[in-house]
Amino acid sequence: MTIHVEGLVAIAIFYLLILFVGIWAAWKNKHSGEAEGTDRSETIMVGGRDIGLFVGGFTMTATWVGGGYINGTAEYVYLPDYGLAWAQAPFGYALSLVVGGLFFAKPMRSRGYVTMLDPFQQLYGKRMGGLLFIPALMGEIFWSAAILSALGATLSVIVDINIKMSVVISALIAIFYTLVGGLYSVAYTDVVQLFCIFVGLWISVPFALTNPAVSDITVTAVKQVYQSPWRGSVHQSDTWVWIDNFCLLMLGGIPWQVYFQRVLSASSATYAQVLSFLAAFGCLVMAVPSVLIGAIGASTDWNQTSYGAIAPKDKEQADMILPIVLQHLCPPFVSFFGLGAVSAAVMSSADSSILSASSMFARNIYQLAFRQSASDREIVWVMRITIFVFGGLATIMALVTGTVYGLWYLSSDLVYVIIFPQLLSVLFIKGTNTYGSVAAYLFGMLLRIGGGEPYLRLPPFIYYPGWTTEQRMHPMTGEMEEVVIQKFPFKTVSMLASFLGNVAVSYLAKYLFESGKISHKYDFLDAVVSKHSGEIMDKTTLVTRGNNIGLSEMSAVKPRLSVTLAAAFTRRDTLDSSPKSQKYIIFL
Q1: For the residues of 374-389, what is the DSSP string, one character each?
Q2: Which of 8, 347, 430, 587 is the most buried (most CB within 10 A)?
Q3: What's the pLDDT tens digit per position in 26-40?
């Protein structure tokens, strides 16, 4: 095996840069929030809620712009019969950030939540919060594993080093600085990550475009030269599939802790909205070099390059077209600079998902469900342990699980069909309750899993209208097999069914119990009859301090006040502003 020394040196330099910035950010902000009395655990989770526009804009953009984003965009532009028309991630995630900023960022930030699961536990109780934690955790862990797996494959192509060694080293660096600095380290390394991607790719693009083996990309966009035009097209029979996938990106990109982690770290609700809009613009800008590299790959006569006569798509290496173009169409010094920057950026992409998973577990499962009296120091240690555990789990999956991408696809679909409609209900639909939430959970999961997942060899048991079968080569085994292709937009239909099921079952349960048609004693979830009692309110308390709850959990961090338990779960903007009402709400 040949070791490319220049490549190793370039990657080592960028890795050390990421590590240095992560440690520096942790040291710089080690006392952040102490003057205001903010808990250390909250500072790790949401950065003391003082992330500014510059760092915030970069870290919000990095919610989706990472190794998977730039590699995936280039891959779809390059693939024959797909092309730019099917490279939906740039516009899908950009619109996701716009929709999130318009409708979700303000209510989440203004109420002062710490994680995405807080409103669910507030309204539906700790048990339902635990159920919703499962798809959220799966999404974060499988995303991290997919990133690390792609990174290992990329590094093995670039420098011929052992794939397992590269995955382990990358994961250890990301876990280390996340352990030390929490969100501050994640945010500051995101700045370096995006800068590395932008500079590394834009330095490489001109050299690749002017390579003698590359034809004019404006010609290959509309005419077949070496393969189908890279502009791509959407056949009429695939229209609903295209719409389904686009809705998955646009709406399914919202209910992720990695997004709300940034939203909730903003210094105000307005800042959170502005950061979302800036990040939407950043998503589009950062996609441009990836689109160009995918187009370059589709316009290359590979027989004239050091890669060989057989094109990457024919070697089942289309997913690595970006590093292949950088390596074989650019001068060595440009190639290694670009590849080193991209590799470091991919490594840095895994940190926020690991932090998100540990934040949700430490707060919503350990603290709120099992140990409401846990000290701040105890929560910090639980976070540190789970960062290591979840990071290790993602690393192991990247190394030993051949179906990590299939698991990621399925879990991201479950986030879309289960968590998004529940988030919509809990924030904007008055009157939903735990019965509706449970029904929606089951509806969404059943309808999505019923559609099957070819990548996991999971056969469907629900055959939606327009289904067909195709002979496809399995990406892991290389065997030809017959798979069922669902042409119906069943993912979006599953999401809508979940949403409508939540509303319908919630109002039905409310009517049956309150009208007396079902005895109050059968309200075993305490979701309707006893919903406003002190006992039930205590079950959904977000943070307990004796008999009080911190107002900072439901509003802006400053000033830190306390409110009565009953007032803590009342929307402050609907409270009577008269002095008579105020004296029952605020006390010291």
Answers
A1: --HHHHHHHHHHHHHH
A2: 347
A3: 888 776 655 555 677
Q: Is 223 left (phi over 0), alpha (psi -120 to 50) or beta?
A: beta
What is the reported pLDDT for 585?
33
Question: Between vectors from CA 131 to CA 126 and to CA 135, what angle results, nearest 5°?
Answer: 135
For the chain, list the domains and their CATH numbers: 5-24+45-417 (1.20.1730.10), 429-540 (no CATH)
Separation of alpha carbons 460 and 120, rounded Å: 30
Per-residue b/e over 18-57, b at no fewer than 16 CB within 10 Å? Answer: bbebbbbbbeebeebbeeeebbbbbbbbbbbbbbeeebbb
Tokens of 415: 């986030």
Residues 6+ apart with CB under 8 A from 61: 190, 194, 278, 279, 282, 283, 286
pLDDT in tens, 357-392: 999 999 999 988 888 888 888 998 999 999 999 999
- In this prediction, residue 200 has a pLDDT band, given cuts at 50, 70 and 90, of confident
Query: In Å, how far are 28, 125, 186, 329, 380 from 39, measured between CA atoms?
Result: 17, 24, 19, 51, 9
What are the structure tokens assigned to 286, written together? 């950062």
Q: pLDDT tens digits for 489-507?
A: 999 999 999 999 999 999 9
| CA within 13 Å, CB half, 550 | 18
